[in-house]
Write a structure and sequence with these properties.
By secondary structure, the chain is mainly beta. It has one helix at 81-93; strands at residues 2-7, 10-19, 22-27, 30-38, 43-48, 53-61, 64-69, 72-79, 97-100, 105-110, 117-118, 123-129, 132-137, 142-147, 154-155, 160-166. It has 2 domains: 2-79, Glycoprotein, Type 4 Pilin, CATH 3.30.700; 82-173, Beta Barrel (OB fold (Dihydrolipoamide Acetyltransferase, E2P)), CATH 2.40.50.100.
């Protein structure tokens, strides 16, 4: 799993893989192996591959994580890179238009039909990728005027999924 940790305005790429009973974690360019155990509602125990062990408190609110270790507190925002890519795409297109797959996957189910009026954030379909179901949402208010996939289809990253016409446009006015 890949994500971005934002600390003090700096984006740090992070990659996490399951490794036996623990994890391999890449932070920036550095890999480390660690075991993480829940030791209470907000308390975690972390053991690194060299035997070093830490206990820390972890509190989460949305994408923000507060980690308290000894006398230090660190605030980190954990961001899904697909969400960032989707947001950049919305900023560039104004939201309406063709919604594309951000990664390869399988269409698990459609949540709308052609002609459906949708609000920004409404679920359009569910894309199964990397053993997770991802609800693809409408980036803007509009009308679903074309669906390019059906349940069970396998799609590549960048494949056209759905077209959402702006609420004021009609399907025939789309170029």
């Amino acid at each position: 799993m890949r994500f971005i940790a934002r600390h003090e305005g700096i984006d740090i790429p992070v990659e996490v893989e399951r490794a036996g009973g623990g994890y391999r974690v890449k932070i920036g360019d550095r890999w480390l192996t660690a075991d993480l155990v829940d030791a209470g509602p907000s308390l975690r125990s972390l053991r690194l591959e060299d035997g070093t062990q830490f206990s820390f408190a972890h509190h989460r609110s949305g994408t923000m994580h507060e980690i308290s270790l000894r006398a230090s507190k660190v605030h980190v925002e954990v961001i899904d890179p697909l969400a960032l890519k989707r947001k950049r795409g919305e900023d560039e297109t104004g939201g309406a238009g063709v919604i594309k797959a951000l990664m390869p996957g399988r269409i698990a189910r459609l949540l709308v039909a052609p002609g459906a009026a949708v609000r920004k954030g409404a679920g359009l379909l569910v894309l199964e990728a990397m053993k997770m179901e991802n609800e693809i949402q409408s980036p803007a208010d509009g009308v679903v005027d074309e669906i390019f996939v059906k349940p069970g289809d396998t799609v590549e990253g960048g494949a056209d999924l759905v077209h959402v016409a702006p609420a004021t446009a009609t399907p025939s006015s789309r170029a």
